[in-house]
Amino acid sequence: MREQLKGHETQTTCWDHPKMTELYQSLADLNNVRFSAYRTAMKLRRLQKALCLDLLSLSAACDALDQHNLKQNDQPMDILQVINCLTTIYDRLEQEHNNLVNVPLCVDMCLNWLLNVYDTGRTGRIRVLSFKTGIISLCKAHLEDKYRYLFKQVASSTGFCDQRRLGLLLHDSIQIPRQLGEVASFGGSNIEPSVRSCFQFANNKPEIEAALFLDWMRLEPQSMVWLPVLHRVAAAETAKHQAKCNICKECPIIGFRYRSLKHFNYDICQSCFFSGRVAKGHKMHYPMVEYCTPTTSGEDVRDFAKVLKNKFRTKRYFAKHPRMGYLPVQTVLEGDNMET
């Protein structure tokens, strides 16, 4: 760590911790996941666990930030401040999960990741807002609690946020998939279209409040879709579905389950779905419904009704009505609009 710290202070290194290099190399085996939002979310889930941030509650993160008096979001933090705050975070995690958390390693790895995301030029400084965005995005909290917390960081004392301030938040958020080389499918590094989309959703008011921001985020805008998908990936990890995959015959299906809304009793497991495998007679553009938890009887009835309706729809209808999982943002680096 001392060599790393010295290197950061003299701005002479882009050194990665050996364990970080190992982690990045391991992410390559997820590149066969065809859908970028899922590919990115699965990489982030692996990163989140390696950094033990999946153990960090929002309240514990806030306590550490308050303890270090990190209230001025525009202020820069130097390496020592980042290390001190991370040490407080991981010391507490070690007390709660002593056999799971190696404090020096976690501090090194998390520092390494934050600098890779927010200090690519290795100036030895990152903004307080960037630090908070990174830590809160990957902590263990309800999705909407994360949205509320992050919005509050860029809102005025009266609880309103203008386009410039929202742009700062979205810019810091998009750096997380950008660092994994996954930015193109989320609208590229240009956050202007996303800011415009949010304020158009708010009927072009000069400022928005938290409730409107939350409503917009619930639509899973393209630039931010990786975050709700990360939560679904985490929820699906332990899910066991009483269904058989029509392609590889896995039963029960573990993880995500994809049920056809065109054919009765047609299910696909996540590895077949992500790699784009389909059984004879079932096209990729046919509607599917995703489950990250086992289905309820109400959902079974609803899906049955949809299959009945879709039985009478033509191939042309499905080609014209692809299901999109995010708000489209037109950019030069636009990703595949067919992604679900």
TrEMBL record:
Residues 240-296 form the ZZ-type domain. SMART domains: ZnF_ZZ (SM00291). GO terms for molecular function: zinc ion binding. InterPro entries: EF-hand-dom_pair, EF-hand_dom_typ1, EF-hand_dom_typ2, KCMF1/Dystrophin, Znf_ZZ, Znf_ZZ_sf. It comes from the Eukaryota. CDD domains: EFh_DMD, ZZ_dystrophin. One of its GO terms (biological process) is neuron development. GO terms for cellular component: sarcolemma; synapse. Keywords: Cell membrane, Membrane, Metal-binding, Zinc, Zinc-finger. It is found in: Cell membrane. It is a peripheral membrane protein. It holds the Pfam family EF-hand_3. Coiled coil: none annotated. The keyword Cell membrane applies. PANTHER family: DYSTROPHIN, E3 UBIQUITIN-PROTEIN LIGASE KCMF1. Anchors the extracellular matrix to the cytoskeleton via F-actin. Ligand for dystroglycan. Component of the dystrophin-associated glycoprotein complex which accumulates at the neuromuscular junction (NMJ) and at a variety of synapses in the peripheral and central nervous systems and has a structural function in stabilizing the sarcolemma. Also implicated in signaling events and synaptic transmission. This is Dystrophin isoform X3. It comes from Ursus maritimus. The lineage of its organism: Eukaryota, Metazoa, Chordata, Craniata, Vertebrata. The gene is DMD.
